[in-house]
C-alpha cells in the first residue's frame, strides 16, 4: 500500500507546477487526489507476476517521419496569439536566476 | 607542516546538436541564424492537440554516435517527459529519455599529451529536444525566440574518469572530431552546437586521511577554453575552500556554478531547492522504438574509421609524428585525402607535408576542402616522389602545386618540365659547374680551405654561385656534397 497523499505533498506539487492554491483548495485537492490514487490502488490487487512492464498503451512501435523540411508558420503567425511581443520576439516577464536550457 | 595531496575528479555532460535538416518532432527547419520565431509550428509552440512525430534521421544519428562510443545499444527505447518551466520550451516539459536511454555503458578513447591514450567511460547517451533561446534585454522583460525549440540534441554523460582540465578539454575535442567524422553534427562552438557541464570535486589526502569535497556542477560552457579553465579554477577554489571550511561531500550539498568569462572565475548560482525535481513520466504522444538487429547492423555499416584510430594508425603505419597525425586527422576529408596519396604510392612524410602545407593553404585560399581542389591523390603522390628523388626542390614543389590547382589535367612531372622546375641532381653535370665556380673564385676557395671564421660564409657563397649558374635548378644537397669532396 502506497503512502497516502497529504497536504504537504499537494503544496509541493502545486509549487512545482507554479500554482497558487488557497487553504480551502489544498484541502479539497488532497481529498480528490487521495480518492483518485485509492482508485488506482485497486490495480495492485491484480497478479502481475508474469506480465511484462508496458512502456506505452498502444501496441505500436517505430513511428517515424523522414527528415524533410516543411514550411513553418513564419514569424507573424507564430506571434499571432502572443499576449505580448517585442519586435520578432515573444515578450515575457523578466526571467530571474535563469537556469533554462536543455 | 601537514602533508596534503589532492586529485581533481571530473565527469562531463555534453550536449551535441545533431545536423538534421528538420527538427526532432516536426518539419520545421533546424537552421541557425534565421529570423527569430520564423522556424516555428504548432508542435514547437506546444499547442493543444498537436502530435510530435520522431525524425528517423535523428534517431539513426544518435545510434551511430552510440556505436562510435562503444555503447550497448538498446533494442527497445522509449521517450519521457521532463518537467521544465522556462518559456523557451512552451509546453512546459522537454521530451527526453529517462529510464530506457538508447545507449549505455560505453567508452571514448582520448589522446593525451604524451601520445598515449586514455579510456573514459560513457555512462549513457540519449536523445532529447533542445529548448529555444531566452534573451535578457535591458528592460524589465525577457525575449523568447523559439527557432531552436525542438532541435535534436544528443546528451552524452561520462563517468567521473578525468583528472585535469586538460583531459576534459581533450575529451571535448575528441568528441567534436568524432561527430564531425561521422557527419552527424557540425559541432560548431560558435553556433552552440556543443555545450558542456562538468561535475567537479577533489579527493584530498591530509595527514593520511582521505576527504572528498562537495561536487560542483558548472553550467552551460560553450568553448573548450572556458571548459578547461573553469575546471582548473574550480580545482584551486575547492582546495582553498576545503582548507578554510573543511566541508566534505554529503547528500544534498552539491552546488551549481556559472562561468564568468570576463573575470575567469566560477560564480555560485542560486537555485531553487526543487529545481531538480523533474518528475519524469512516460511520453504518451510517442511510441517506443524497437531496433532490430538488421537495422542496427545497417547503421553500423555507416561507421567510419574513427579519428583517434586513424591518428594512431598514421603514426604506426606511416611513421608520422603524433602532432602531424593529429593535424591530418582534425578533419575527415583531409585525413582521407592524405591516406589516398600514400595508397597511390606517395612518400608518407612528404605527403603529410604537402597536405598540411600546400594542400591546406590552397584549400583555405579557395574556401574548399583539400579533396575539392581538383588535384588528384595520384598527382600529389607523383610530386612527393619527385621531391624524394631530388627531382624538384620544396620551393619548386609549391610552385608546381599552385599550377596544378589551375591545370588539374597535367601531371606534376609535366608541369615541372614545362616550367623548368626540374632540379639538376646529376653529379657529373654539376661537378663541371662546381669546377668552373672554383676556378673563378680563388679567394673564396682560400677562405674555405683555410678553415677560419670565414669558411662557412665562403662555402655558402660558392654554393650560391653554382645555384646562380644553374638558374636555381641545381640540387643544393648534391652541390654541397661535391664542394665538400673537392675542398674538404
Essential attributes:
heterodimer, A: 102 residues, alpha+beta, Histone, subunit A, 3 strands, 32% helix, B: 488 residues, Arc Repressor Mutant, subunit A, ten-stranded mixed β-sheet, three-stranded antiparallel β-sheet, 40% helix, elongated
Tell me the total number of β-strands of chain A. Answer: 3
> What does the average pLDDT of chain A come to?
89
Number of helices of chain B: 16
Content of β-strand of chain A: 5-15%
Q: Could you state the order of secondary-structure elements of chain A as H and E?
A: HHEHEE
Biggest sheet statistics of chain A: 2 strands, antiparallel
The structure class of chain A reads alpha+beta
* Largest contact between chains: A-B, 43 and 71 residues
The rounded distance between the terminal residues' Cα atoms of chain B is 65 Å
Shape of chain A: flat
Uncertain segments of chain B are: none
CATH-defined fold name of the domain at 7-45 in chain A: Histone, subunit A
Number of strands of chain B: 18
Q: Indicate the CATH class of the domain at 7-45 in chain A.
A: Mainly Alpha
Task: Reconstruct the topology from this structure.
The complex is a heterodimer of chains A (102) and B (488).
Chain A: H1 7-16, H2 23-41, E1 64-65, H3 75-78, E2 85-86, E3 89-93
Antiparallel strand pairs in A: 2-3
Chain B: E1 4-17, H1 42-45, E2 54-55, H2 56-68, E3 72-73, E4 76-77, E5 80-83, E6 93-96, E7 103-111, E8 117-129, E9 133-136, E10 141-145, E11 152-158, H3 165-182, E12 194-206, E13 209-212, E14 216-218, H4 224-245, E15 255-260, E16 265-268, E17 281-282, E18 289-290, H5 293-300, H6 307-318, H7 322-328, H8 332-343, H9 348-366, H10 377-388, H11 394-404, H12 412-418, H13 427-440, H14 442-450, H15 455-469, H16 476-487
Helix pairs in contact in B: 3-4, 6-7, 8-9, 8-10, 10-11, 13-15, 13-16, 14-15, 15-16
Question: How would you sum up this structure in a few lines?
Answer:
The complex is a heterodimer of chains A (102) and B (488). Chain A has 102 residues and is of the alpha+beta class. Chain A has helices at residues 7-16, 23-41, 75-78; strands at 64-65, 85-86, 89-93.
Amino acid at each position: 500500500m502506497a503512502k497516502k497523499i497529504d497536504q504537504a505533498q499537494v503544496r509541493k506539487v502545486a509549487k512545482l507546477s507554479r500554482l497558487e492554491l488557497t487553504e480551502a483548495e489544498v484541502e479539497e485537492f488532497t481529498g480528490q487526489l487521495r480518492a483518485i490514487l485509492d482508485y488506482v490502488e485497486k490495480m495492485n490487487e491484480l497478479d502481475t507476476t508474469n506480465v511484462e512492464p508496458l512502456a506505452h498503451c498502444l501496441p505500436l512501435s517505430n513511428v517515424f517521419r523522414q527528415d524533410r523540411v516543411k514550411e513553418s508558420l513564419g514569424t507573424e503567425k507564430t506571434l499571432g496569439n502572443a499576449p505580448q511581443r517585442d519586435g520578432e520576439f515573444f515578450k515575457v516577464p523578466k526571467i530571474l536566476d535563469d537556469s533554462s536550457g536543455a | 607542516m601537514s602533508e596534503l595531496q589532492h586529485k581533481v575528479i571530473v565527469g562531463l555532460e555534453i550536449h551535441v546538436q545533431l545536423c538534421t535538416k528538420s527538427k526532432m518532432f516536426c518539419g520545421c527547419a533546424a537552421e541557425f541564424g534565421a529570423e527569430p520565431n520564423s522556424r516555428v509550428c504548432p508542435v514547437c509552440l506546444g499547442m493543444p492537440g498537436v502530435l510530435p512525430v520522431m525524425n528517423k534521421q535523428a534517431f539513426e544519428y544518435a545510434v551511430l554516435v552510440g556505436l562510435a562510443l562503444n555503447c550497448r545499444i538498446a533494442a527497445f527505447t522509449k521517450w519521457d517527459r521532463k518537467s521544465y518551466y522556462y518559456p523557451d520550451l512552451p509546453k512546459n516539459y522537454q521530451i527526453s529519455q529517462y529510464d530506457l536511454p538508447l545507449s549505455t555503458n560505453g567508452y571514448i578513447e582520448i589522446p593525451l599529451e604524451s601520445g598515449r591514450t586514455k579510456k573514459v567511460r560513457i555512462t549513457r547517451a540519449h536523445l532529447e529536444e533542445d529548448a529555444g533561446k531566452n534573451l535578457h534585454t535591458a528592460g524589465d522583460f525577457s525575449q523568447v525566440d523559439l527557432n531552436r525549440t525542438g532541435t535534436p540534441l544528443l546528451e552524452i554523460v561520462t563517468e567521473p574518469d578525468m583528472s585535469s582540465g586538460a583531459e576534459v578539454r581533450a575529451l571535448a575535442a575528441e568528441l567534436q572530431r568524432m561527430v564531425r567524422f561521422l557527419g552527424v553534427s557540425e559541432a560548431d562552438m560558435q553556433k552552440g552546437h556543443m555545450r558542456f557541464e562538468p561535475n567537479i570535486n577533489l579527493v584530498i589526502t591530509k595527514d593520511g586521511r582521505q576527504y572528498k569535497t562537495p561536487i560542483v556542477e558548472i553550467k552551460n560552457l560553450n568553448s573548450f577554453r572556458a571548459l578547461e579553465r573553469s575546471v582548473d579554477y574550480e580545482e584551486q577554489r575547492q582546495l582553498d575552500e576545503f582548507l578554510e571550511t573543511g566541508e566534505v561531500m554529503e547528500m544534498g550539498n552539491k552546488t551549481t556554478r556559472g562561468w564568468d568569462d570576463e573575470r575567469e572565475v566560477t560564480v555560485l548560482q542560486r537555485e531553487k531547492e526543487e529545481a531538480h525535481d523533474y518528475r519524469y513520466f512516460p511520453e504518451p504522444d510517442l511510441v517506443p522504438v524497437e531496433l532490430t538487429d538488421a537495422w542496427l547492423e545497417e547503421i553500423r555499416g555507416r561507421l567510419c574509421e574513427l579519428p583517434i584510430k586513424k591518428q594512431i594508425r598514421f603514426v604506426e603505419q606511416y611513421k608520422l609524428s603524433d602532432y602531424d597525425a593529429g593535424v591530418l586527422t582534425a578533419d575527415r576529408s583531409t585525413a582521407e585525402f592524405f591516406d589516398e596519396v600514400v595508397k597511390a604510392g606517395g612518400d608518407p612524410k612528404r605527403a603529410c607535408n604537402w597536405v598540411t602545407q600546400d594542400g591546406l593553404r590552397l584549400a583555405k585560399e579557395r574556401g574548399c576542402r583539400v579533396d575539392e581542389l581538383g588535384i588528384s591523390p595520384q598527382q600529389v603522390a607523383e610530386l612527393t616522389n619527385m621531391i624524394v628523388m631530388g627531382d624538384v626542390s620544396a620551393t619548386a614543389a609549391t610552385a608546381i602545386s599552385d599550377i596544378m590547382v589551375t591545370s588539374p589535367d597535367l601531371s606534376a612531372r609535366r608541369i615541372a618540365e614545362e616550367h623548368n622546375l626540374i632540379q639538376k641532381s646529376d653529379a657529373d653535370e654539376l661537378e663541371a659547374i662546381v669546377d668552373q665556380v672554383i676556378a673563378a673564385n680563388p679567394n673564396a676557395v682560400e677562405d674555405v680551405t683555410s678553415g677560419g671564421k670565414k669558411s662557412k660564409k665562403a662555402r655558402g657563397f660558392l654554393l650560391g654561385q653554382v645555384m646562380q649558374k644553374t638558374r636555381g635548378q641545381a640540387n643544393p644537397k648534391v652541390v654541397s656534397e661535391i664542394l665538400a669532396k673537392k675542398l674538404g
